[in-house]
## 1
Amino acid sequence: MEIIAALANSFIELFKAGAATFVSWVTGIIPLVIVLMTAVSAVIKLIGEDKVYSMAKTATKYTITRYTIVPILAVIFLANPMCYSFGRFVEEKYKPAFYDATVSFLHPVTGLFPHANGGELFVYMGIATGISNLGLPLGDLAVRYFFVGIVVILIRGVVTEKIYTMMKK
Amino acid sequence: MYKSVTIKRGKAGWGGPLTITPTDSRNKILCVTGGGIHPVAQKIAEMTGGIPVDGFSTGIPDEEVMVAVVNCGGTARCGVYPKKKIFTVNLTAVGKSGPLAQFMTEDIYVSDVTEDCITFADVEAVTASVKQVETIASQAKTKAQAREELAKMNAGKKKNIITRIGIGVGSVVNKFYQAGRETIDMVIKNILPFMAFVSMILGIISASGIGNIIAKTLSPLASTLPGMIGISIVCALPFISPVLGPGAVIAQVVGSLLGVEIGLGHIPPQYALPALFAINAQVGADFVPVGLSLGEAEPETIELGVPAVLYSRLITGPVAVIIAYISSMGLYS
């Protein structure tokens, strides 16, 4: 009987650590994410995605803006997965590169604008939780992730564009 | 005389497309949008030949209502008409919600509708309308008549300033409310289930001692630049990356594991930034064809685009880690 009780206890122990993690995430992450996501998506609804269309169209003409400004606007205003639909403003030969740039921005954006990819927050949040546990501020990491993200999507766009052109020949 | 129209949902909308055809007994377009006839209701009326009715000033029997045009924020009206089995067009971007949500189905309800969402139902109807160009004079007359009737209906109850402010405030509040609803939806449908499953895994890992093994293998790998470049190359291999991609689940689980190790001090905090790129070199590799077709790419572009993106990652994956590593200088030190 005692053995069974001991087994039951250690079985429950196995999940207590998980329960503690769950509670710390629910109380530590969810409230801020809810308020932030509500605020940002309300502002974006008020501005309206139509307003950024003309800007996105002009920006597709130049290499640098095509793989920076256009994906950023698409991701922030249309969010995952509708952001890819901005591809229709881009010339056919640039579409794969544009996709690569857009999809690569879907996680760097979540540090500052979690609404844009609410279903996949934990790439950033998972690592960020560790930083919070050390008592360090997250702002610096979120901002750097965002800006390094911009540099990376530009490189991805340019490289994929070159590879696609080579493959097409 | 009467024509069928198809009403599609708007960009942020839900439901539909609805195809509606007026009949002699059922030809009223009931507009319940805070007084007056909304342009969408007017356009449906013009295209179908039905009669627009202001629901705020005129009561009509439900049997005569062909379609109801509402601007409901998601509690009552959007469910009331579907419950009565009346086609419902909501101008606000509201999905299945409110106490009557179970009655709102895609074959009776469509939302975020603008004037551009309304088209003639089929090719026959369109060609018929082209034929009628010859008799345009008479048709123009009916349109003019419709406008006149409309003007008459709206005359004498011009919206005063208080009503207009009220409608304006209402639409802003509605947007905030909708944003809140979408956020809570996201938390319940995506974030909480993910937290439940990952905290269970993390709990078992740490309580069972597997955590120590990970700390000894993964941590040293993720706390050196070559180690992280290695992770990114493995993630970017063209035959592995599409398998790792879906829902970013793998990246999220690995991110959470690394987070634990960072929290325990096994990985220095400044490695967080390059690690974010190392574990995510495969981002979206599974989604290339879908993403490209959302961007209206041709089939040939998709065929060549998929390998182009996958090969490109082999170069840009490690490059991203190096850039992030350089950019992490001065972070948390």
Note: Chain A is about 75% helix and 0% strand.
## 2
Amino acid sequence: MAKDTAGNAFVKFDRVQKSYDGETLVVKDLNLEMPKGEFLTMLGPSGSGKTTCLMMLAGFETATHGDILLDGVSINNIPPHKRGIGMVFQNYALFPHMTIAENLAFPLEVRKIGKSDREQKVKHALEMVEMGAFGGRRPAQLSGGQQQRVALARALVFEPELVLMDEPLGALDKQLREKMQFEITDLAHRLGITVVYVTHDQTEALTMSDRVAVFNDGRIQQLAPPDQLYEQPENSFVAQFIGENNTMEGVVKEIKNGVAVVQLDGGELIDCTPVNVSKPGERTRVSIRPERVEYNKARLQEGAHTLKATVREFIYMGDIFRTRLSVAGNDDFIIKTRNAPDQDRLQPGQEIEIGWLTADCRALDA
Amino acid sequence: MSDTTDSGPMLAADGTPLKRSLARALRRQKIRALMLVAPLLLFVILTFIMPIASMLMRSVDNEMVGEILPQTVVEIQNWDANSGELPDEAVYAAFAADLVQAVKNKEHTKLGSRLNYEQTGLSSMFRQSGRKVKNWDPVTDGPFKEKLIKAHKGWGEIETWAAIKTHSSKYTSGYFLNAIDMQKTPQGIAAQPEDKQILITLFIRTLKMSLIITGCCILLAYPVAWILANLPARSANLLMILVLLPFWTSLLVRTSAWKVMLQQQGVINEVLVWLGIVADDNRLEIINNQFGTIVAMTHILLPFMILPMYSVMQTIQPTYLRAAKSLGATNWTAFWRVYFPQSIPGIGAGSILVFILAIGYYITPEIVGGTDGVFISNRIAYHISKSLNWGLAAALGAILLAVVLVLYWAYDKIVGIDNVKLG
């Protein structure tokens, strides 16, 4: 998506803080700018403040401090029903005493849209989510996936420019969830709406979003497109939270030409990319993805530091092999290799030497 | 699965039909279930079904006249009550024989008071004649016509005999007619004399006031239930204890407390006089009338409205209101279009409960109702314990039961009984 977030942001959180009890801050100094048409995901563990942010944007919670702007206008004092923001709830919140068509007509009715116009819009919205034949049913007569579609249609039927989704796929099974992930992103891009999506499922966040904001402890830890988030985590929380990760602790020996040499606590030396370290002597936590570890010496850079490893366990997972190693005193070092025809299967007890590209190994905060 | 190939019924592994095998397997479970409910079932039959059945019987039962005057009821069938003449000697002879026997058995006063419900004066007639006929011999002392008329001149009046004839059948609709301010006369069914017409008025008043009480309960209970359902659990529990507090206090004490509050020298009047809102010589009459009954009963029945409402509202998720607001509804629209319809089952359950309890209420109207605030149940109690007209009391009770069942049926038709949730 376009990066011209400066100046004309569509949604803007400006130094927003939120406290429920007046003692602790649930959201600490949140700054966020979203351009129009972006699909942004708020990702984080429970209690990280992501849902609170969504509720403040929707108007169900008030910010304790700071401004929330929508299209350049502060919406702090605008009640939820005047914000014109579509919202999909975790449990769908379809009104059980109304039919599907009545549920969809509800936002149009309260906007005093004429009957014929209303019916046409409802029909169109239902067809958009392939639920055209279900208008006369009650929510209880639909499956979870169907209710999900209806909830989506209801949030879109009054043509809002901004749609909020609060873990909308949480209650669906894996297969259906993957299908809906695709449908939601497809629909969002087709209609050109701006979406703020809250989830604690990192796969969902990575596959659906233009940008992901990783929340922890009331702050955005990193705001970046999915690939950047995965490959270049900016701190050890993001590295741990997104995907699987091997970490090793040590002290920076020297930093030269963009390469940091780190002495692990066991005494071994490795090369890393310095991210959150600036000078020798600092403690650091080094992070490396399991699929970026290499034990075939021919593929390693010349002169790269390598480590001795002992194979502990070999797990066959179908598409990949997952091998647990003992490296530098760490018994839970994982490597992943693709199940390719020429790939050898390591045996427990086998001694190997492992290494990696300097760019894949990041020296983060301790 | 060899047995799936033949066309006959499914067989179990040992060759018996699967259906029989299954029935046998389930029989033990059914017997156990029956044993578990048996004590309560027995209790309900003994203390609920049988009394109601016997009450319903009593409302049409009229065996007393036929039992005490067996010969008279046979002979009197030959007499035409509209002929304008007294019955002939045969009837008098039969009656004398029956009466002598009744006096011997000490049953004549019982019969007298039974017939007195239909025609005033018959009770004392039977009592006085009883003393005189005590030593008559029904075989040798005839003829009896003049002797009886001499014993009491009432036996020379056609109305007396007409009343006996009208009520000589084994079953009677007389009690039910009385219950709706009608009576059975030799000329057919007619309205009660105006000064005796009270029961219809009482029925209508009972229904009307029960409706008002139910309405007041809905208005007062709805906001409370809403607060209860939306408060955090800790404060909700505290409030719930306050709601339940009246349940732990004796009904009599609560009603008497209202007497203290509402009487002319009571707390409310004293305060109003002290504040100068009401003149000392013009104190409000807010007890011993309908107002007092409505206030006290609304207070007493309120928990029965709050509890079902609360349990229904608890199941309505707050996200529904949020969803409605996010879709553009104002607070009021969100409440009226989304929350209220979902809370109707609670209102329905509470209303049925309160209305049915109110319609049969006795103690509170008795204490605070005065004369124009009493209910039909107070009249039933009067007939059971004071006038001893159990037949009429049973007929009134049966009508009350029927009214409740009809209302229940109507409610089912209109709202649907599946929509009622008690929790």
Note: The interface with chain A takes residues 317, 319-320, 322-331, 333-334, 337-338, 341-342 of chain B (CB under 8 Å).
